[in-house]
């Protein structure tokens, strides 16, 4: 059952707020925010969200980058929230994937699939959300430290994140002064399955990978910094300054 109480931090929408970093952010924010979480799959059986619903108002939405009716679904969901009097005071776009696509494997279909989720989807979400965000809201977009040094075996993914690196300052100009836009270029915050030797940690100045709490802190910092817009904050343990 949904609780009706409102939290001081207002209502935030997390696109891709179900797994991994999205879940960690939802759990962090739930203490002082109402939350709208999206997933590409039906929400049944997510007991951790049921747990969060005990202390926060949570709405679960089904937004799938592959859905041909995505745009009208997003508009309908956002209309419903507005009709219910829910004002969105913050949003974070986390959805994406991290496909291995070395040179020689690229096809029109595989490139389109990568770019649909990693660049078209955030663009469409940002467009749908922009008019719904309240005055003073911050729209935050999750990028990758690959915007500084592309992943050579994941160039299509890196190109998608570079597209988002253009979206951040561009949207900041289009939405100012009502709404701020901030990006987060992340190094590894979760251990990679294909990195059993700790190679990623070794390739940072700090000799470790980060953790989801690093993202949570930065997201709160950006939301609470009213003079910050159009910027991309890099958190990668100094990876981009390591000689290659
Ligand atoms: N993890 C890291 O260390 C790291 C490092 C650098 C950058 N990042 C960036 O941080 C963000 C979160 O990364 P992550 O590692 O937590 O998770 P992830 O595995 O990359 O997935 C992020 C989210 O994308 C959603 N998603 C997958 N397919 C989708 C689709 N067809 N339509 C809509 N949503 C879809 C997933 O939710 P559902 O399956 O519920 O739909 C998931 O919550 C990503 O943008 C990633 O590029 C992460």
Automatic annotation (TrEMBL):
InterPro entries: NAD(P)-bd_dom_sf, Sc_DH/Rdtase_CS, SDR_fam. The keyword Oxidoreductase applies. Keywords: Oxidoreductase. Pfam families: adh_short_C2. Signal peptide: none annotated. GO terms for molecular function: oxidoreductase activity. The keyword Oxidoreductase applies. PROSITE patterns: ADH_SHORT. Belongs to the short-chain dehydrogenases/reductases (SDR) family. This is SDR family oxidoreductase.
């Amino acid at each position: 059952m949904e609780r009706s109480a409102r939290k001081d931090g207002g209502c935030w929408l997390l696109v891709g707020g179900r797994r991994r970093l999205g879940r960690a952010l939802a759990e962090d924010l739930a203490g002082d925010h109402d939350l709208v979480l999206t997933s590409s799959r039906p929400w049944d059986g997510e007991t951790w969200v049921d747990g969060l619903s005990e202390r926060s108002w949570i709405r679960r939405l089904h937004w799938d980058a592959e859905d041909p009716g995505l745009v009208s679904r997003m508009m309908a969901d956002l209309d419903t929230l507005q009709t219910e009097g829910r004002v969105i005071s913050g949003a974070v776009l986390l959805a994406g994937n991290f496909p291995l696509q070395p040179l020689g494997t690229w096809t029109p279909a595989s490139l389109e699939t990568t770019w649909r989720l990693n660049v078209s989807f955030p663009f469409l979400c940002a467009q749908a959300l922009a008019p719904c965000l309240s005055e003073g809201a911050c729209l935050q977009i999750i990028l990758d430290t690959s915007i500084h040094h592309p992943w050579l075996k994941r160039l299509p993914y890196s190109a998608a994140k570079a597209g988002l690196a253009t979206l951040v300052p561009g949207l900041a100009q289009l939405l100012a002064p009502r709404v701020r836009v901030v990006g987060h270029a992340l190094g590894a915050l979760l251990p990679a399955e294909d990195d059993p030797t700790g190679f990623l940690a070794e390739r940072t100045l700090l000799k470790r990978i980060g953790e989801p709490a690093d993202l949570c802190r930065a997201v709160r910092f950006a939301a609470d910094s009213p003079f910050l817009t159009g910027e991309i904050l890099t958190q990668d343990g100094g990876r981009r300054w390591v000689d290659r």
